[in-house]
Give the backbone structure.
Amino acid sequence: MNKLTIPATKTALAAVLAMAATAGAHGTAVPGQGTWETALQPRDYNADGVVDAYYDISRNLTWLADADPIGATDYHTGKAWVDSLTVHGTTGWRLPIIVGVAGGFPSCDGYYTYDGSSECGYNVPAAGSELAHMNQVLLGNKPYWDTSSNGGNTPPQPGWGLSNTGPFTHLVAGDYTTSHTVFSDFYIGEEFVWLYQFGLGYQDAGEVVLPTTHFWVVHDGDVTAVPEPGGWALMAAGLAVLGLARRRQG
C-alpha cells in the first residue's frame, strides 16, 4: 500500500482557487505561447470535419479534443467512464500518468516544493507528468508561484493562470484526475487520487469522493481511425475487387 501525507498548504488556497477559475474562464488559443502549434496534430476519426483528438508528436501521445467530456464528478464515476470509453471504434483510452522524480510512484512527503525539485507542488517536472507537460510546455501556462517562491505571502508571478487553452474545447481551470490513487497517512484510511490543477499549476492529491474533479483522457501512440463494423465488409469487398483486377492484369 502506497502512503502519502497531504500537506496543509493547500487548505490555505481556497480563495486563490476561486481566482484561478476566473482566470481560466475565458481561456483561448494563444499563438506563440507554448509548443502546441508545432507539437499537436489534429485527428478526425470519422471524417466529419470535426477534430476528435490531437496527437502530441513530442510525447507520442494522443489527447481527446474535448478536455472535459463528462464534466466534474468523483473519481470512481469518472474512472468507470474512462475504462468503458470507445472513440469511433478505438478503445484503450486512459487517464494521464505521473512518475516520481526518483522514478516509480509519486510522493509528497508532507510538503510542497516550488522549484520543481519534486512531483508535489508547483512547477513540477513536466517530464514526469503528462498533465504538467500539457499545461506548462505545450500550452506554456505559468503556475501561480515561480520557482524562486517560498509560498505563503510571496506574490504570484505575472501572467499566471490558464491563459492558453490551445485548440482544445472545455479545458477548465480546475483539478484534473490522473491514474494514480493512494491512501493517506494524515487522514487514516482515506483514499486519495493524484491531481493536476490547471488554474494554479500545481500537483498533489485530493479525495476520491469529491465530485469536483475533471477527466481528460489520453491514448498511447498516434491513434488512427478504426472502421465501423459495416466498414470492415466494405473494406474486404474493396480488397477483393482490387485483387481480382490485379489477377486480370497479370
User: Anything to note?
Assistant: The longest helix spans residues 229-249. Residues 12 and 195 are 17 Å apart (CA to CA).
